[in-house]
Specification:
Length: 120
């Protein structure tokens, strides 16, 4: 009976992990499809051609806010993590923190969608 319970727990963890990974993958596909379809919207291109300065200004402000917001979370949380770690080998150095900050910016499909929603 105990063996069956152990197998059920093990199987449910593996299954749950795969289910969430699959759902995450599907949601990312829909986000990138939305961004791709939105890029083909002719009305947006007409608006941009009528006022390119305003479009560049909005895009620059949004990019700056995204850069600042990501840095505001990565660097303080890394600092707190370093305070809690006793071993110097486990601590996150500045080079790794910058890598975490930059990789989160490049992978952020949600950031792209939020930026598109701010423009509407």
């Amino acid at each position: 009976m105990q063996l069956i319970l152990i197998l059920i727990i093990l199987f449910s963890r593996v299954t749950t992990k795969h289910v969430f990974a699959t759902l995450s993958f599907i949601v990312e596909i829909f986000i990138f499809l939305y961004v791709g379809m939105d890029a083909l919207d002719i009305e947006k291109w007409r608006f941009i051609s009528q006022s390119p300065g305003k479009s560049v200004g909005i895009s620059s402000v949004l990019l700056g806010l995204i850069l600042f917001g990501r840095a505001a979370f990565v660097f303080p949380l890394s600092f707190l993590s370093n305070l809690l770690q006793k071993s110097p080998h486990v601590k996150i150095d500045m080079k790794q923190q910058v890598t975490i900050w930059w990789s989160g910016l490049m992978r952020g499909a949600v950031s792209i969608v939020l930026a598109y929603n701010q423009m509407k």
